């Protein structure tokens, strides 16, 4: 199935179907998680829909052995990131994109922004906005990104 670049907003993301930018700019992440699919969510402490989205992604990571999840904060202040991370610590590893360098590489324009990356490093789907955390959408993403790798 072709990559889905449509977000909730209905526009195609420019990274859909392309190689995902690497994580070398994140000092707090030693290496990119290895799995069949990687779900990367950009979030911020002030984003109302991000907390629910991260909770949904945490549930996904517990249910699906072939899926790794990573939450990347674009908060401007470390204190905001740390406070949110301390209160909302869960199943999703959270890291801080201090200078928003990675967010720029991923062309994040709205929060939350969820990128699904397959085992070959390709962005196979991008969902943007609060309803991106909907479990039905994530199930669909998993089918599109993980199942083709297992055949």
Q: What is the helix content? A: 25-40%
| Mean of all residue-level pLDDT scores | 78
Unreliable parts: 1-10
CATH topology type? Glutaredoxin
Q: Which homologous superfamily in CATH is the superfamily? A: Glutaredoxin
CATH architecture: 3-Layer(aba) Sandwich
Q: How far is it from the N-terminal to the C-terminal residue, by CA? A: 13 Å
Number of helices: 4
Query: What's the level 1 CATH class?
Result: Alpha Beta
* Spatial arrangement of strands, main beta sheet: 3-2-1-4-5
**H/E element sequence:** EHEHEHEEH
What's the domain count? 1
Radius of gyration: 14 Å
Number of strands: 5
Largest sheet: 5 strands, mixed
Quick one: overall form?
globular
Which structural class do you get from the secondary structure elements? alpha/beta
Strand content: 15-25%
Overview in brief:
With 151 residues, the chain is α/β, with parallel strands linked by helices. The protein has helices at residues 48-63, 78-87, 101-105, 135-145, and strands at 37-43, 67-73, 94-96, 113-118, 123-128.
What does this structure look like?
The protein has 151 residues and is of the alpha/beta class. The protein has a single domain, classed as Glutaredoxin. The protein has four helices and five strands, in the order E-H-E-H-E-H-E-E-H. It has helices at residues 48-63, 78-87, 101-105, 135-145; strands spanning 37-43, 67-73, 94-96, 113-118, 123-128. A five-stranded mixed β-sheet has the order 3-2-1-4-5. The longest helix is centred in the middle third of the chain and has 16 residues, at 48-63. It is globular and about 35 Å long. The two termini are 13 Å apart. Residues 1-10 have low confidence and may be disordered.
């Amino acid at each position: 199935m072709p990559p889905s670049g449509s977000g909730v907003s209905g526009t195609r993301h420019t990274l859909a179907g392309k190689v995902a930018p690497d994580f070398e700019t994140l000092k707090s992440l030693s290496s990119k998680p290895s799995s069949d699919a990687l779900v990367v969510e950009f979030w911020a402490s002030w984003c109302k829909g991000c907390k629910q989205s991260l909770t949904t992604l945490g549930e996904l990571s517990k249910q699906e052995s072939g899926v790794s999840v990573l939450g990347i904060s674009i908060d401007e202040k470390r204190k905001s990131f740390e406070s949110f991370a301390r209160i909302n610590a869960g199943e999703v590893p959270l890291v801080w994109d201090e200078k928003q360098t990675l967010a720029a590489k991923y062309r994040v324009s709205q929060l939350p922004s969820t990128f699904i990356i397959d085992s070959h490093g390709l962005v196979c789907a991008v969902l943007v906005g609060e309803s991106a955390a909907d479990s039905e959408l994530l199930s669909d993403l998993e089918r599109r990104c993980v199942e083709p790798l297992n055949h």
